[in-house]
């Protein structure tokens, strides 16, 4: 994470009011470790059980909420952006998260409207003002209508917690006013048959290679010699 965040790259989106990286996109295209991570069986195999055997890597990124100053993510469905900007036909993609820090009630956890995916794809508008990363968001009146009879779920847990959710689930997150930064790794896998039909967004945001991802062995990240990383010696 520190390596890719230190790069001056268009794939590193910074906060609107600071020079702090908010999201680092295209990780598996930029770093060998992340290239293995997106093929780790603990991601790939559960995703295949849910969405089918032939999945491509749509997106890999790390989202960070910097302590004190971390910005919000507006209420949204991932499918709104995937459909309008990338031409993805159906809301079949899966978002697979791993918490890189402890996530608590105070450092900007993700909020979900439980069962909101059952309402299907909602109206959306393109927000270019609220944050540094413009995208399609769910209008306030839709959030009220869909959420008034449903529970909100706050996704919290220790570092290493895994989370999987679908393309139509309405979610967002508040600003981080706490003294604790939180970072979350996100991998989005989509069925090859549901692949993008537009290339409006750059490749580091929606990847062009639709070759089905194949799982590596479970130890692919623990054998340092295979990652080109030298162990420290005394």
SSE order and pairing:
Blueprint: H1 2-5, E1 12-14, E2 21-25, H2 27-30, H3 32-37, H4 41-51, E3 55-65, E4 73-76, H5 78-86, E5 94-99, E6 110-113, E7 125-127, E8 135-137, H6 140-147, E9 152-155, E10 162-166, E11 171-173, E12 182-191
Antiparallel strand pairs: 1-2, 2-3, 3-12, 4-11, 5-10, 5-12, 6-9, 6-11, 7-8
EC number: 1.14.11.57
Pfam families: PhyH
Keywords: Oxidoreductase
Describe this structure in words.
It is a single chain. The protein has 234 residues and is an alpha+beta fold. It has a single domain, classed as q2cbj1_9rhob like domain (Jelly Rolls, Sandwich), CATH 2.60.120.620. It is built from six helices and twelve strands. It comes from Paraburkholderia gardini. One of its GO terms (molecular function) is oxidoreductase activity. Pfam families: PhyH. Its EC number is 1.14.11.57. This is L-proline trans-4-hydroxylase.
């Amino acid at each position: 994470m520190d390596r890719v965040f230190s790069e001056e790259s268009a794939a590193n989106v910074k906060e609107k009011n600071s020079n702090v990286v908010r999201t680092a996109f295209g990780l598996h295209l930029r770093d060998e470790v992340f290239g293995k991570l997106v093929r780790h069986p603990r991601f790939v195999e559960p995703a295949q059980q849910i969405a089918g055997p032939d999945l491509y890597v749509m997106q890999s990124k790390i989202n960070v909420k910097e302590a004190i100053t971390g910005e919000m993510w507006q209420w949204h469905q991932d499918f709104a952006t995937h459909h309008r900007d990338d031409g993805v036909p159906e809301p079949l993609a899966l978002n697979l998260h791993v918490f890189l820090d402890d996530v608590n009630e105070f450092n900007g956890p993700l909020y979900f409207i439980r069962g909101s995916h059952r309402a299907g794809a909602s109206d959306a508008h393109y927000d270019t003002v609220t944050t540094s990363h413009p995208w399609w968001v769910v209008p306030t009146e839709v959030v009220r209508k869909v959420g008034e009879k449903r529970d909100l779920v706050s996704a919290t847990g220790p570092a290493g917690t895994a989370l999987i959710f679908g393309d139509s689930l309405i979610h967002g997150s508040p600003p981080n006013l706490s003294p604790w930064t939180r970072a979350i790794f996100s991998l989005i896998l989509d069925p090859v048959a549901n692949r993008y039909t537009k290339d409006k967004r750059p490749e580091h945001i929606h990847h062009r290679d639709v070759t089905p991802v194949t799982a590596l062995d479970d130890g692919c990240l623990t054998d340092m010699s295979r990652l080109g990383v030298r162990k420290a010696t005394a």
